[in-house]
Amino acid sequence: LAKTTQPISMDSYEGQEVNITCSHNNIATNDYITWYQQFPSQGPRFIIQGYKTKVTNEVASLFIPADRKSSTLSLPRVSLSDTAVYYCLVGDPMDTGRRALTFGSGTRLQVQP
Amino acid sequence: SAVISQKPSRDICQRGTSLTIQCQVDSQVTMMFWYRQQPGQSLTLIATANQGSEATYESGFVIDKFPISRPNLTFSTLTVSNMSPEDSSIYLCSVAAVRQGIYGYTFGSGTRLTVV
Question: What is the pLDDT of residue A17?
């Protein structure tokens, strides 16, 4: 499984856009990039998944450059409720259910008023 | 996507005792995964539970300490045996989920265990 590297922590203020970048230099051809969000005292929650270019949903956008060696999770106009730990994971979706997720250290986002 | 009910949500236990954590899924799944998350840390995989066979444990985790049952395709239990304060953690179960064609994982809400 491709190893990922993310910043340990980030700080932001309400209303700002937050971009969290993840490095995955050894990503394989069949690997997708998936981001999870974890609030205190809860299990991780799926946010977004992508393979290349840009993916957007109601929560976030995911930007993936052509070489796919990194990806950026973009949270538009964050609020206090976006304070959480964000995990970037890389893997083959066809392994889903056959192989457990391997979590890196994640990025602890603190949003200030 | 799958919905997981995990119980208990929290417990405070005496050292030397055991606690069994239950994980119920609203759909049939082949594999269930058990994780441990120590305070301020990331998630660490304990074992993979496949229905009808012995669980597969990760390095550093053994069946005598963390016995797992998987009696059917919707249920699993993890027991933390002979507990010590070092076992104080959040324990989570997880299953694969597909929603709108996207393959991902769903997690239970976790069991916060404190050993005193």
Answer: 97
Segment A23-66, tens digit of pLDDT: 999 999 989 999 999 998 899 999 999 999 999 999 999 999 99
Residues 6+ apart with CB under 8 A from B63: B54, B55, B57
Cβ-proximal residues to B32 (8 Å cutoff; 6+ apart), any chain = B23, B25, B48, B49, B70, B76, B93, B94, B95
Contact A41 B43 (CB under 8 A): no
Q: Would the pLDDT of B97 be above 90?
A: no
CA pair distance B33, B115, nearest whole angstrom: 23
For B51, residues 6+ apart whose C-beta sits below 8 A from its C-beta are: B30, B70, B71, B72, B73
C-alpha B78/C-alpha A23 separation (Å) is 34
Q: How many CB atoms lie within 10 A of CB A108?
A: 17
Q: Where are the beta strands (DSSP E) in chain B?
A: 4-7, 10-13, 19-25, 31-37, 43-50, 56-57, 68-72, 75-80, 89-99, 102-107, 111-115
Instruction: Note the pLDDT of residue B19.
Output: 98
Asked if the Cβ–Cβ distance from A43 to B94 is below 8 Å, we say yes
Q: Nearest residue on chain B to A49, judged by CA atoms?
A: B102
For the stretch B16-34, pLDDT in tens is: 999 999 999 999 988 899 9
- pLDDT value at position A2? 63
